Amino acid sequence: xxxxxxxxxxIYDCPDDVIIPxxxxxxxxxxxxxxxxxxxxSNADVDVEFTCRATTPRECNQTGxxxxxxxxxxxxxxxxxxxxxxxxxxxTVTVTVxxxxxxxxxxxRL
Length: 110
Hints:
By secondary structure, the chain is mainly beta. The protein has strands at 10-12, 18-22, 29-32, 37-39, 47-54, 58-61, 65-68, 71-80, 86-97. Residues 4-97 form the HYR domain. It comes from Patiria miniata.
């Protein structure tokens, strides 16, 4: 009797989507996260592929940190077990410029 592994790896602690407000679009914003972990029912190691895609310049690392420009970046960790089963942890980092509207007769101090 042969058994086959048809269960994808389990994902633990996949980060949630995040929105980071900034006052201007001139600089990249640092952001850190705790990378997810994967385990498989076969107790074998899980191969993890990392991608980070964005429409604007950004830097991000599999270890859980990056610098993001205004826009949306999709961060993805794809775990593949020895039988080829795949599970994906994906989240977005959105950097958005916020506008502060102040009435003409008011002073705003930051």
